[in-house]
Amino acid sequence: NVIQGIIVGIEVLLSEEEIRSGDSIVASVSAFDAAGNKKSVNGAWNIDSELMPVDQGDWMQLQPGPVGNYSIYATWFDNESQQVFEIEKIMNIVPGELARIILPESGTRIASDEVLLMRPSFEDEFGNEVPEVLVQWTIEDVDMTMEIRLSGHRWAPDKLGIHEIRATSQGIFAITEIEVIPGIARQIYSNFN
Fold first, then answer.
1. Is the distance from CB of 165 to CB of 152 less than 8 angstroms?
2. What is the pTM of this model?
3. 168, β-bridge pairs
4. 10 Å Cβ neighbour count for 76?
């Protein structure tokens, strides 16, 4: 029958290796002996507020929002050895799932001889910037994805008026309306004799 040895340290255990904004994470304290045997213990916590900690008794629930590095500090008193153990862990929070695609504001005007740069920004539910994702483009109900990608993410309008542009990615979409106005005159015609 194997028994736990003398405790030599504690560690913070997290339910996920990569911590993303918006995730729900379980954090607990584990004490270990020199042989690496572990047991769950009920420690005291000091956690950065950006991790939105909720005490669940023997463990903490974390719901991080802003991207960045935040600390978790835990202590535990071992009654057997009369020793206090402490540990600090730095958590790197990365952006969460895509929640918003931000396009140029509806009503944006471009001249017919200009191009519109189709580089939207992407955010998670907490407003953290999400790295660029592939977007499906629809303009006036016509799939223009390949044309926009091949042109370096630029759209050159071919007619005047208001055009509805829709961007879709990972089940999220955004719609904007761009007004195309006449460009600079290049030629002057006259019917004067």
1. no
2. 0.74
3. 136, 173
4. 19
78 C-beta neighbours (distance < 10 Å), count: 15
| Residues forming beta bridges with residue 60, ordered by sequence position | 27, 55
* Alpha carbon distance 98, 169 (integer Å): 8
Tell me the C-alpha to C-alpha distance, in Å, between residue 149 and each of 46, 116, 136. 48, 13, 10
Q: Give SS3 for 145.
A: helix
Amino acid at residue number 160: L
28's CB contacts (< 8 A; 6+ apart) are: 12, 13, 40, 58, 59, 60
Cα distance from N-terminal residue to C-terminal residue, the chain? 113
CB 116 within 8 A of CB 153: no
pLDDT (tens digit per residue) in 167-183: 999 999 999 999 999 88
Cβ pair 81, 6 in contact under 8 A = yes
Residue 122 in contact with residue 129, Cβ under 8 Å? yes
